Amino acid sequence: MHTPCSDGSTPEIGFDPEAVLERDSRILLDPAFLATLHAELAGELDPDEQRTALLQMGFLHGLQDVTRALASTPDRGCHQTGPALAPPLRMPLRSSTDTHTPNAIRVEGSWPDQHEATAHLSAVGAGDHVVCYLSAGYTSGWLSGAFDVDLLAVEIECSATGADSCRFEAREVDAWEGDAVAAQSLSALPFEQFRALVRERFAREAGRDLPGEPGDLEAVERGAAAVHIWGPVMVLPYAGPDETLQAIELLARDPGAAEVTVIVLDLGGAIVDEAFGAMALEQLVQTAEAWGAETLFVDPSPLSDAVLADLEHPPLLTLKDLEPAIALAFQIARSQRRVA
Predict the structure, then answer these.
(1) Strand arrangement, sheet containing 233-237
(2) pLDDT at position 56, please?
(3) Using an 8 Å Cβ cutoff, are 222 and 322 in contact?
(4) Three-state SS at 210
(5) Nearest Cα residue to 107 out of 95, 123, 122
């Protein structure tokens, strides 16, 4: 459905949605980017225009991320609720679903890292109104895609105003009727238009082959020391922390790795210790980020779960099986491609 403005018209999109969709959603977690974004918008737009731009940008990233996540996990139902929604999120949140309201979806939660509020405070300063519109937009897009229902997340408490946390409430669009604050956000989000943009984008990508993509993923020999590179996807076997760091140094100097945008680290059931092993994995993820690449970890030992959970720079996803991980890596690489 198109959400109309107060005058009955449909809101314009205040930026190039294709350009925004091409960018990695790490921008949602980058303090420097967020601070610059809030400072520039505050200097160039009035408050209503700022809210619209941030909500729309966040919504498109959230809808794009959940569409990719659901496409890569077809065996999972899209109507799962509560904590099950949280692990694949690029922007961390804690949430719980209201199960006491029959036939209605209502989610309450918080953004525990408070990235956007902190960035706004550093760039603009404290104020008397909530500021996490990019986060609210992302959450709205993610939940709308996950539940296949138009859902709007509204920030109800913000640390930028002196509160202890950044909290939100998400309801179906009709359930916000009569709420003046929600009405302002709804006027900025033409849900169906954005859904169509994301559907069109993923439909285009589905028909494209990436250069170097292997026709037979089973050809990857597990346990081999060789690094496999297929165009934008690299499969790196884990042989210990020292070997991983050496591989990173060599690949950083290898012109052939310049086009890699997704790194699949095959842990092969290895036990990662919390000292050197964790440091090596942190370095791998940070190096990949410096390239503008994503990292997927595959098949860690159950004994390594606690170590991976404590990483300050975690991978995009941790998966069990190598074959589907490589397939997912190519899906991610497709989503990163620039529009020709």
Answers:
(1) 228-230, 233-237, 262-266, 294-298, 317-319
(2) 92
(3) yes
(4) coil
(5) 95
What pLDDT does residue 84 have? 35
How many angstroms separate the CA atoms of 324 and 203, rounded? 20
Amino acid identity for residue 180 in this structure: A
**What pLDDT sits at residue 64?**
86
CB 174 within 8 A of CB 163: no
DSSP-assigned states of every residue in 236-281: EE---HHHHHHHHHHHHT-GGGTT--EEEEE-TTPPPPTTHHHHHH
Report pLDDT for 225: 52
Identify the residue whose tokens are 């030992």. 301
CA 10 to CA 221: how far, in whole Å?
Answer: 54
10-residue averages of pLDDT along the chain (340 residues): 40 54 60 84 88 91 82 48 41 54 77 89 88 93 90 95 93 92 93 87 61 53 60 83 76 69 87 84 84 86 86 85 82 59
Q: How far apart are CA 131 and CA 161, in angstroms?
A: 9
Tokens of 32: 């420097």
**What dihedral angle (degrees, nearest 10) is formed by the CA atoms of 179, 184, 189, 191?**
20
Nearest to 317 by CA among 303, 331, 241: 331
C-alpha separations of 103 from 99, 100, 172, 230, 241 in Å: 9, 9, 11, 47, 51
Q: Which of 235, 233, 232, 214 minimizes the C-alpha distance to 223? A: 235
What tokens does 151 get?
């859902």
Give Dmax over CA atoms of the chain in angstroms: 64
| Model-wide pTM > 0.70 | no
Tokens of 55: 């909500």
